Amino acid sequence: MFYLITVTVLWAFSFSLIGEFLAGSVDSYFAVLTRIVLATLVFLPFLKPALLNLKQKAILASLGAVQLGLMYIFFYHAFLFLSVPEVLLFTIFTPLYVAILNDALFKRFTPFYLLCALIATTGAAIIRFNGISDNYWFGFAVVQGANLSFALGQVGYKKLTSTFKTQVPYHNVFAWFYLGALAIALPAFFIFGNTSQLPQNAQQWGILLWLGIVASGLGYYFWNQGALKVSGGTLAIMNNALIPAGLVVNLLLWQKDTDFSRLFLGGAIIAIALWMSHQYSKKQKQL
C-alpha cells in the first residue's frame, strides 16, 4: 500500500505539469518518447536477460507497449481537448475496465459493470452540459483509450508475474517493460511527431526530465510492484485516489475559472457509479 500511496502523490503533480506547461507547446509524441527513453535508461543497467524466457520477455514488453506506450499517446493528446480537472475525472473509469478485463480473462461477463459505466458517463455529461462540443467528447474518448491501456497493463502484469516459477528480482527484468513502450513511442514520433514543437526552455526540459526519470521510471515500477501486494479491490480504489489528489493540486496551484457546482455534481455521480461497482464486486466475492 505504501508504494501505491507514494506514487499517487507523485503522479498527482504530473497531470498539472503536463496540462499547464507542456500540452499545446511541446509535441506530444516527443514528450512521450523523452519520458520513455529516460525511464528505460533508469532500468537498463539492471537488466538480466537470462531471468525470463523468450515468451515472458515478449509479454512484459507488450504490456509496456500498451500500459505505457499507447497510454501516454492517448493521455497527452487528451490535454489538447480537455482541462486538467476533466482529464482527472474521466480517469475514474479505469477500475471498471480492470473489472471488465478480469471478466474477459476468466471468461465471464457482468452486465452490471456496463450499467455503472453508463451512469458515470451521465456524470461526465453534467460537467459540461452547457457547451458540449465534438472536441469535448473526442477528448473524453481519448481518455478512455488511456484508461483501457492502463487497466490492461495492470491486469496483464499481475497475470504474468503469477506465471514466474521462481522469485524474480523485478528490477532486473522491468527494463523489458520500458523497451516495449519504446517500440511504440519511437516510430510514433518519427511518423507523427512535429519537430517544430520541441521544448523551448529549461523549464520544459526540466519537467520532461522529472516526468521521465521520476514519474515514469520510478513511478511505474513501484506502482506495478505495489499492485502485486494488494487485492484487486484495493488496487481499484487506489486507481481512483489519484483523481482527488490531482484535482486538489491543480485547483490549489493553478486555479482556473471552474464551474465547481457542475464539477462536483458530475464527479459525485461518477463516484456513485464507482461505489455501485465496488459494492457489487464485494457481494460477488461473498457468494
Automatic annotation (TrEMBL):
Keyword terms: Membrane, Transmembrane, Transmembrane helix
Transmembrane portions of the chain: 29-47, 112-130, 136-153, 173-193, 205-223, 235-254, 260-277
Residues annotated as domain Sugar phosphate transporter: 94-229
Domain of life from the UniProt record: Bacteria
Pfam families: TPT
InterPro entries registered for this protein in UniProt: EmrE-like (IPR037185), Sugar_P_trans_dom (IPR004853)
Cellular component, GO annotation: membrane
SUPFAM superfamilies with a match to the protein in the record: Multidrug resistance efflux transporter EmrE
The name this protein goes by in its record: Sugar phosphate transporter domain-containing protein
